Automatic annotation (TrEMBL):
Active site: D10 (proton donor/acceptor), D12 (proton donor/acceptor)
Catalysed reaction, written as an equation: beta-D-glucose 1-phosphate = beta-D-glucose 6-phosphate
Protein species of origin: Clostridium estertheticum subsp. estertheticum
Residue(s) at site: Important for catalytic activity and assists the phosphoryl transfer reaction to Asp8 by balancing charge and orienting the reacting groups: S115, K146
Recorded family membership: Belongs to the HAD-like hydrolase superfamily. CbbY/CbbZ/Gph/YieH family.
Cofactor (UniProt): Mg(2+)
Binding positions (substrate): 10-12, 26, 45-50, 53, 77, 115-119, 146
Domain of life where this protein originates: Bacteria
The keyword Disulfide bond belongs to this UniProt entry's keyword annotation: no
Segment forming the signal sequence: none
Designated name of the protein: Beta-phosphoglucomutase
Amino acid sequence: MRNIKAIIFDLDGVLVATAKYHYLAWKRLAKELNIEFSIEDNERLKGVSRMNSLDIILDIGGLTLDNDAKIKLAAKKNIWYVEYISKLTPADILPGVIDFLESIKINGLKIALGSASRNSMLILKNLKLTDYFDAIIDGTKVSSTKPNPEVFLKGAFALNTPPCQCIVFEDAQSGIDAAINAGMYCIGIGSKNILKKANLVLSGFSDMTFDKLELLID
């Protein structure tokens, strides 16, 4: 039996469906730059930092810009994204998440957020999820992005828990790689065909409890 003491969650696509708002904001920016940007292209941005995402889009469009121009574009995208997510409510929390968080708490485990998003606090506040977390590590607290394990290692440190006793929930391959690099058990949320490196893949948290999870990872 695995001795699990803590759970670390990614945010976008795991607890809340904010990926569509990232897509809308990036697509709006790409259109302004006369770049064709598809849903398939957007898959490349999952778990990737804002500036690296912009570099991918510019590469798709064959554009080269100086750093000052890129900073202004990334800021513009974020303004649009914040406009979208400012309208989030608890109704936007993905199915089963609240019950699963409650079951983790009942079993005495610690909970952390490990997200690349710099807007995590705004999202958690709007969703009324903040109080569930013992530690929140986001894009404002790390210098390296996934697949670098920094965000998850800092989460484990904040929870005073060894990485080997942590489970990470992720929906992006870069996040899966980061969890593996951190020496943590990783559960993918999404498709088994995409998240092949995860130790286990779930479609979501519907009807999931920590007791059921223990049986799956035993």
